[in-house]
Amino acid sequence: MRNINTIKICSIIAVLLVGFEGLIAQSSMNNMEISYNNSFESKYISEGRDNLESGGLSSFNTDISYHWFNLNIWYGTGADKDYRELQYSAGLSFDLSNIGINFGLTDLSFLHDDSKDQEFYTELSYNKFNWLTPTLVNVYSFETEGSFVKLLLEFNIPLQIEQLSLTPFLLGGLDFGYVEDTNGLNNFQMGMELSYQLIDNVSINGYLASSFGVWEKSSNESHTWSGISISTDF
Question: Which domain range does residue 198 map to?
Fold first, then answer.
């Protein structure tokens, strides 16, 4: 089974790379941006829930942008238990004045139990202020036929060291049938991310976050976790 899943992952990546070969041939590399991220998180928290129940998550992420087109491949594996998740997304992003718009489709494959899901996401961000970036995200799951809405506030704190950036953040999550059969507030989250630019295109990042569940349900408890990653841009 593991060999079959490995072949599947490699095949998807190969098909995507072949699809971009034509774009590369028709344009210069200056029109394309590629980033790679390798990270480890002490817990795998999303929508106010711990997806692993115990142990951390290692993940690998590749993002390719060409003008307004975005392609993303993400693979995560559990550190202490058999959990393997593959995501690949395709979307469009553009700016209208100070508003950033991003939307697209994500295919999720849970390789450890052969389950799948597809999601449609939309994202709006307001980029007028240097010190604050508010972002509104909506994710619709075709499997659960529910949506999850997130309001994210990111604060840019100026530091004397040019290579360092500090970003505290606040997040509120609303569940509309995505996690539970209830509509309304799901969780509040707060945290802080610190990034250090090692060289021009390589940075190391770390964060600490806490999530506080609103509903008294086992899937939505309070959690505190951290993560570290290294990112490379081309």
Answer: 2-233
Give the CATH number for residue 126. Answer: 2.40.160.40
Number of domain units in the chain: 1
CA dist., res. 208 & res. 42, Å (int): 10
Tens of each residue's pLDDT in the chain, 234 residues? 444 444 445 445 444 444 444 444 444 456 799 999 999 999 999 998 899 988 999 999 999 999 999 999 999 999 999 999 999 999 999 999 999 999 999 999 999 999 999 999 999 999 999 999 999 999 999 999 999 999 999 999 989 898 999 999 999 999 999 988 778 889 999 999 999 999 989 999 999 999 998 865 545 678 999 999 999 998
d(CA 158, CA 129): 13
Q: What are the start-end ranges of the E strands in the chain?
A: 32-41, 45-46, 49-50, 57-66, 69-78, 84-96, 99-110, 115-126, 132-141, 146-155, 164-176, 183-199, 202-213, 223-233
